[in-house]
Amino acid sequence: MATRPPRKRGVPGMAAILRAAVEQLAELLGRPPDSVSSVKLTEDGWEAVVEVVELERIPDTTSVMGSYTVTLDEEGELISYERTRRYSRGTVDRPGH
Prior knowledge:
The protein has 97 residues and is an alpha+beta fold. It has one helix and four strands, in the order H-E-E-E-E. The chain is 16% helix and 42% strand. The radius of gyration is 15 Å and the shape is globular. 12% of the residues are buried. The model has no long low-confidence stretch (mean pLDDT 87).
């Protein structure tokens, strides 16, 4: 069983970073994120991929989604964001495509 390294005092944990990424991106885009696909610690802070409904359609499997890569510093402040993908909610990724 692997042990995780101790957290520095005053440095937010992953749950706090996820909340910060979602809240700050929602404020900038004017719409709430739908989910977080990934989050990782980097040398300079944190990076998360956040999924956002950009255009709601009926049925919802045809809604247009956007994947945003969000970069945060060690304290959870947003440094940058970029939409890296746009797709229909019902789309399934296939390896090699």
